[in-house]
Fold this sequence. Notes:
single chain, elongated
Amino acid sequence: MPDIGFAKCDPAAEPQPAARASVAAFDFIVIGSGPSGRRAAVQAAKLGKSVLVVEKGRRVGGVSVHTGTIPSKTLRETVLNLTGWRERGFYGRAYRVKKDIEARDLMARLHMTLDHEVDVLEHQFARNSVSSACGTARFIDPHHVAVTTEIGETKLFAGEKFLIAVGTRPHRPAHVPFDGCSVLDSDEIVEIKRLPRSLTVIGAGVIGVEYATIFSALDVSVSLVEARPGILEFVDHELVRTSYTSCATAASPCGSAPRSSGSNSSTAGRSRLWRAAGGCVPRCCSIAPGATAGPICSTSPRVASPPMDAVA
Ligand SMILES: Cc1cc2nc3c(=O)[nH]c(=O)nc-3n(C[C@H](O)[C@H](O)[C@H](O)COP(=O)(O)OP(=O)(O)OC[C@H]3O[C@@H](n4cnc5c(N)ncnc54)[C@H](O)[C@@H]3O)c2cc1C
């Protein structure tokens, strides 16, 4: 992959018109190397355009490769594999492929997979003569971007057309005391140093349910907190109900829990499953500290996790 070097300059100084005349120019500049950016870049290159991809992360790939799709799917497969989850129906619930699974077992496979993905991407850029620059892009005018590296070097690039494909990042409300250790966002969870004994997942969307089921399969006690009345409302209701039904079967008896708005620990929510029409809807009533008031969907490792194949 042709890599564009950086000239030393003062990042605070606005580039002068004369300096702009001498910058490297491209037909198409893509900001962000996630799935959308890289596909657009490669496609434009295939159509004969000169293309530059600017990425502020250390390596190309975006959320999809480094913190999102591929890491979560790799963790999921690693956990299914090491825990022997798929064979438990045959050998029994106590069956494990590896007895003491540690965070480093998960991380080893994760990093191997991610390195491979980055290699594939870099090779794809090289094959299609897509240039790349590492740094944070900002527009100077409609046809120029300044790209600043982590160490403060800045370089200008000129572009005929631009694609802004800068993606998303986890929402981090100011009142939540993120510390990268016991309170983590979904980017940080893929870098944990040790497995927790218990975990409360705030938000039962796709990502929340995915991580809840992954950690649950690792015998971590998991509580899933959701402010909305149900989980995965956009998913086929029959599928979701099946997940609940399986938890109803496993968590016996499935009694109703009182509604309250106090705080609770993740383990307290474990047995609080509430039977509702159509299955066992785990709507517990306590609320984790700092979370928006609402029901807790609780899963415990062996008894109440929704089947992973059904939700992830
Ligand atoms: C935990 C998790 C699991 C997921 N699982 C799935 C899944 O199973 N299936 C699925 O389809 N989707 C999944 N997603 C969503 C998927 O990862 C995103 O939809 C996808 O990555 C979005 O791609 P993108 O190219 O728009 O942006 P991103 O992948 O976010 O890439 C944007 C890039 O732009 C860079 N950037 C930002 N600002 C600048 C700047 N100023 N200068 C230079 N670079 C910049 C960022 O560093 C980043 O690398 C998941 C997401 C998460 C978080």
